[in-house]
Amino acid sequence: MRPRHIPSILQFTKLIWQQVAASWNDTETAAVAVDGTVGNGHDTLFLAELVGEKGHVYGFDVQASGLANAQERLESASMAERVTLFHDGHEKVAERLPEETVVAGAMYNLGYLPGSDHAVITRAHTTIASLQALLPMLAANGVVTVHIYTGHEGGSAEGDEIQAWAATLSWKDFRVGRYDFPNKELNKEHLLVIEKL
Questions:
Q1: What are the structural domains of the chain?
Q2: Whose CA is closest to 196, among 146, 140, 132?
Q3: I want to staple 55 with a disulfide (CB 3.0 to 4.6 A). Which of 31, 68, 128, 181 is the partner?
Q4: What is the Cα–Cα distance from 94 to 101, expressed in whole angstroms?
């Protein structure tokens, strides 16, 4: 099979994050990242690697089974000390993070936890509440990525609401980009990238 030149959404997300993390090297401040949807911990581990030894990741999930899998994954990679996991909804981000925390970046991977109850899904109202709480904590040039899935019940409505909300963000304060494949017929996905100016 010939290599594809257009990256998948997952590949594009990682490219964005590697670029963001490269900018952290220009500062002496330890980077703080948020994983708004820990799931089984794949993104959490990715962020823990990016923040480095001085940085820290705060992760949120409502499902204990996912958090247990994430903890095991982090321990296996010797990254557990860089991460604090909360068994809580991501809308509690402002309450749970230490006061005056400045967030370098945040990642949200919406939908359901693979291998678990597909009825437990992220919801637009809690995701938007989380983003609204997080954006004031975001550093200048801080980035938030939101991977939206529509292949499950409620996914399209959630995606539409979040994209409509993101479109209302002030151009003076934020840039919002979107990456997707308009000719993908099934299980459409969208990646929102929000950068604070």
A1: 9-19+31-196 (3.40.50.150)
A2: 140
A3: 31
A4: 9
Give the global pTM.
Answer: 0.94
| Contact yes or no for 127/90 (Cβ under 8 A) | yes
Q: What tokens appear for 12 in the block?
A: 């594009």
Helices (H), the chain: 9-24, 42-51, 64-76, 93-96, 124-134, 155-166
Q: How far apart are the first and last CA of the chain?
A: 41
pLDDT at 19 over 90: yes
pLDDT of residue 111: 78
How many whole angstroms separate alpha carbon 69 and alpha carbon 73?
6
Q: What is the pLDDT of residues 67-114, one digit of tens each?
A: 999 999 999 999 999 999 999 999 999 999 999 999 999 999 987 656
d(CA 175, CA 122): 24
With a CB cutoff of 8 Å and minimum separation 6, the contacts of 160 are: none
Task: Give residue for tokens 């899998």.
Answer: 69
Say how far apart CA 80 and CA 158 lie, in whole Å. 32
3-class secondary-structure state, position 132 = helix
166: Cα within 13 Å, side-chain hemisphere = 26
pLDDT value, residue 117:
58
